[in-house]
Amino acid sequence: MKRLSPPTSRMAGISARIGPIWRVTLLYCALTLLLAYPLTTNPGSRVLSAAADTNLFMWALEWDTHALIHHPLSIFDANIFFPERHTLAYSENFIGSAFFAAPVLWFTHNPVLAMNLVELLSCVLCGVGAFLLAASEVSQLPTAKQKHCWPQRSKTHLNRMGERPMSKPLLSIALGVVLAAPSLVFAQAATAMPPIVDPLPKPDAEGQKPRATAMLAPYRYDDILWENDRTAHRIYGRALEAAEPPSSSGIDAWGKKVRWPYMDRQLRTGKQHEFHGEGLDFYDVHLTRGAGGLGIWEDNKLWVSRNWRSYQILKNGPDVASFKADYAPWPVDVSRKVWESRTFTLPLGTNFTRMVSTISSDKPGPLIVGIGISKRKGPNGSGVFTQDPGAGRVSYWEPTDPVKGTMAIAVLVDPKALVEVRQDFENYLVLVKVEPGKPSPQDYGYIHSAAARSAFKAALRSS
Questions:
Q1: CATH architecture, range 214-462
Q2: DSSP code of 235?
Q3: Which of 18, 217, 265, 421 is the most buried (most CB within 10 A)?
Q4: Residue-wise pLDDT tens digits, 56-91
Q5: Contact at 8 Å (CB) between 290 and 272?
Q6: Cβ distance 193 to 45 under 8 Å?
Q7: Which residues of the chain are in CATH 2.70.98 domains?
Q8: Distance between CA atoms of 442 and 327, rounded to whole angstroms?
Q9: CA 130 → CA 178, 246, 267, distances in Å?
Q10: Cis peptide before 364 (omega within 30 of 0)
């Protein structure tokens, strides 16, 4: 059996043959930057693919970073699939990658940038590692056999073509490129996120803390805004009915990229539908129920109110956002009138707003309330609607926008009150039976594709 050299002497031999390792590292850095284009031009706001796996990667890196600091011995008890244990093991755990992602997340709070830098760094490390492996293996071969590591040509052919046999260092680099090629070409399918237009100035350190907030926006026709560290919503005031008819009492949902409040600063730009770096309003409510608005279902039709008439902020953070909105009487067919008082409550750390609706009527008798989710139609279909009447849950994954991603809306109701799940022309509807004057709670929420689909499904099951 051939006697192998000690590891120390082997590495010394490799170093003598290939020169300083930093040259090889620079080579693979250059190759990665080149082959990963266009991802490398803006790694903080581009992703390879607006898909569920991308969202899972970002969530896993954020969770690992959080758990390593706060409860490292329970890192596998992730915040998904509650009450199951060790749920981080249900997929790749990325614990090793989290050590590289953690400094990026601490300083930038940008999971997209952290994920992309980890991916780009892995390309460089794979290339350098493959090069070292190839160099080590070639260096251990007898000199007589090393010539067989590259294609041989006759002396006459070499002289005719003006070629020379490949040197050992070049052979090692070539083998390293071949071995690392799969990781170097991964970014060619990079999907752009919306281009940043007139970036919003970041708030100060205090303003960047996660917070739940609720407020009136009198500068924008009396919109009411509320958000936490995960979601952002608004409803419209009466002033909008005159300024931008038609208007709707449906519920709006905004895509959100940061953990701190941003809606007020975004809305003050007057260009809330553009991406200024922190999120954007791309969920079109129009005349639908939007993300959980309601109406009275009567004679196969949804009878809805106009925009809110009065309001009261009950709590403006930092741990909970809560407010009350009252809606003026509106007709239900020609038989009766109803009016509504509704409270909205959104704590930190959840995707779901608790809405408690108290509907009064000028006539006795139960009412059927329809809680709606706006339908969408995209070039690749109409999305995916799922229902679990026994648990009182419905959800709708909208068609994916190649730039803005996917919005998923869910509604949770008391299954004992649920009558039927159906749809009209504009909405998927959950029909529940209520008694006039008695509070009726519902939960509704959403997730934008910047977060993990699996985490959202888990939240549905545990809510």
A1: Distorted Sandwich (2.70)
A2: E
A3: 18
A4: 888 888 888 888 888 888 889 887 776 678 888 888
A5: no
A6: yes
A7: 214-462
A8: 17
A9: 9, 62, 50
A10: no
